[in-house]
Amino acid sequence: MYHVRFTGTHYEAGYKWGRLLLKNGKKLDRCPTFALTEEKYVFAGECVKEYQRYFPEILEEIRGIADGNEVPVKILHALLFCMYCFEPDHKCTCFAFSTEDEIVFARNSDFLVSLEKLYMNCLYRLEGGYGFNGNTTAFVEMEDGVNQHGLAAGLTFVYPHLRKPGLNAGMLLRCLLEKCKTTAEALEALRKLPIASAQTLTIADRDGEIAVVECNPREMEVIRPRAEERFVATANNFNSEKMRPYRNPEIDDWHSDERYQTARNALEHNEGNYTVTFAEDVLSGKYGFMCQYDRRQNADTVWSVVYDLKRKQIWRTEGNPSRKHFNRDDRMKLD
C-alpha cells in the first residue's frame, strides 16, 4: 500500500502527484480493470456538469493530475467517473457499533490480488476542505476514511442496474469526508447530491450516530440500528425492503450475504464485548466467513481498518487481517 500526503490547493496537490508518477515512469492513460469505451467517455462528459455544480474542487484536482502526468484530462474523467457505474468489481464489508463506552467503524476492502501493490492510504489536508485519512484502490476517490472531526465512512459496491450522471460511490464518500462533520450532515448532503452508481455507505460520527445508506440513482433508504440493537452492518447487497428489488442474485458477489450474516450474527450475540479488538476479530474471520478467500482466484481482503472514534485512533492492516496484524496510525490527529 502506497502512503501519500496531499496538501495545498486541490490543483496543486493533484499536479504534484501526477508529476511524481510521471517522473517514476507511470502514466495514467489506461484503466487496469475496464476498457475506456466511447460510451464511458460520453457518460463521463455528462458527469462533469454535475461535478461543476456540486464538487468543482475535485475537477481542479483531476486537472492538476492530468497536467502533472501529461495525459488528456478526459481520460481521467472517463477512468474516474465511470468506476462503480458499469462493471461489478469491488467487494467489501462494513459495520459500526455505538455504546456509551465505544464508537467504532470497521471495514474490510476485498479486491483483486493482482493490483494490491497499487492500493493507497492518503492523508489529505487541502485548502477549503476538512483533512482526512482515507484508503482507496484507485486515486482521488476514497473507499473508507475518517476526517479531522471524527466522521468515519465506508462504501460497499452494489451491482449497477442503472446509472445516471452524478457522483459515483468513491466520489460521494470523498465529498462527505471533505465537507461534513457529522452523520446528520452527511445524510443531508446525500439527499442533495446527484448519485451515479449503486452502493451502501456506512457512516459514524464521534457522537455515536451510526447509519447505513442504501442508494442508487433512483432510490435511497437510511438504515438505523434496530430496536434494542447498537449496530449496523452491510456488504455488497441491498437488504432493506425498499432496495431489495435492485439486488442481482446471478452475479458472483464474493459471498456477500454470507459476510453480511457473519457480521450481523457476531454483533447480535456479543453486545457486551464491543471493543476495537472484537471488531478486528470479526474482520479477521474469527466469527465466520469474512476474509477467507482463495488468493489463487485473484481475490482477497487487501486491507482492513478500524476507526475508534471515542479514542480518536486509527487501526489498519495492509493485507488480509487473518494473516497480518493491525497497526495504529497516528499520523493524523483528530480534533
Topology:
Elements: E1 2-8, H1 10-23, H2 38-54, H3 56-69, H4 73-81, E2 91-98, E3 103-112, E4 120-126, E5 132-136, E6 144-147, E7 152-157, H5 169-179, H6 183-192, E8 199-204, E9 210-215, E10 220-223, E11 231-234, H7 256-268, H8 276-283, E12 299-308, E13 313-317, E14 327-328
Parallel strand pairs: 1-4
Antiparallel strand pairs: 2-3, 2-11, 3-12, 4-5, 5-6, 6-7, 7-8, 8-9, 9-10, 12-13, 13-14
Biggest sheet strand order reads 1-4-5-6-7-8-9-10
Mean pLDDT: 94
Q: Percent range for helical residues?
A: 25-40%
Shape: globular
Order of helices and strands: EHHHHEEEEEEHHEEEEHHEEE
Distance separating the two termini: 26 Å
Structural class: alpha+beta
Share of residues in strands: 25-35%
Keywords:
335 residues, eight-stranded mixed sheet, six-stranded antiparallel sheet
Give an overview of the whole structure.
The structure is a single chain. The chain is of the alpha+beta class. Helix content is 29%, strand content 25%. The chain has 8 helices and 14 strands. The strands form 2 sheets. It has an 8-stranded mixed β-sheet with strand order 1-4-5-6-7-8-9-10, with helices on one face. The chain has a 6-stranded antiparallel β-sheet with strand order 11-2-3-12-13-14, covered by helices on one side. It starts with a strand and ends in a 7-residue tail after the last strand. The mean pLDDT is 94.
